[in-house]
Amino acid sequence: MNGTGTFSEQPSIRILSVDDHPFLREGLAAIIENQPDMILVSQACSAAEAIQHHRNFRPDVTLMDLRLPDRSGIEAMVTIRAEAPAARIIILTTFANDADVKKALAAGARGYLLKSTPPSEMVDVIRCVHAGKTYVPKAVTAPREKPERDEPKGSHEAGPMRRALNRFLRKRI
């Protein structure tokens, strides 16, 4: 209730969360449910469920995992947008490769977020996409560093840490 004795609720952003990992779905649910302007209307764990839940719940924003067990999140998004062209879908993934980003945006994604995104940034992106804007983080669009010469092929896991350590050491010298 506001100071005039009337209720002043702003409408909630209705969200559908789609991910095949229960741990991530529960984490997203906890983050969303702590936002005063957001409500989680449904969760799905496959592309088929995502399409059906989008039909049933008509969310304002959908968080869609890129890799789902039955089809890709992009394929699910294409189907959803064929039925609901104004659907606002944010791809949420661990993959930051250029081909996936381009494919998702070309298919109509309004946002592309890495699962390593801090929760406060994620909810800001949901609000941004709900407002009709598009969001792609700089970490996805920035040119990637070339590997160090001594870095063996296939060491992509150690590569970023090694490059960060090398940069740190160069600054200290």
Instruction: Please bin the fraction of helical residues.
Output: 40-55%
Low-confidence stretches: 1-8, 146-159
Average pLDDT, to the nearest integer?
A: 83
General form = globular
- Structural class by secondary-structure content: alpha/beta
**N-C termini distance:** 60 Å
- What is the fold named in CATH at topology level of the largest domain? Rossmann fold
Describe this structure in words.
The chain is an alpha/beta fold and 173 residues long. It folds into 2 domains: 13-142, 3-Layer(aba) Sandwich (Rossmann fold), CATH 3.40.50; 144-173. Helices cover 42% and strands 16% of the residues. It has helices at 22-33, 47-57, 73-83, 98-106, 119-130, 138-141, 159-172, and strands spanning 13-18, 38-44, 61-65, 89-93, 111-114. A 5-stranded parallel sheet has the order 2-1-3-4-5, with helices on both faces. The termini are far apart. The relative contact order is 0.11. Residues 1-8 and 146-159 have low confidence and may be disordered.
What are the key terms here?
173 residues, alpha/beta, Rossmann fold, 2 domains, 5-stranded parallel β-sheet, 42% helix, 16% strand
Quick recap:
By secondary structure, this protein is an alpha/beta fold.
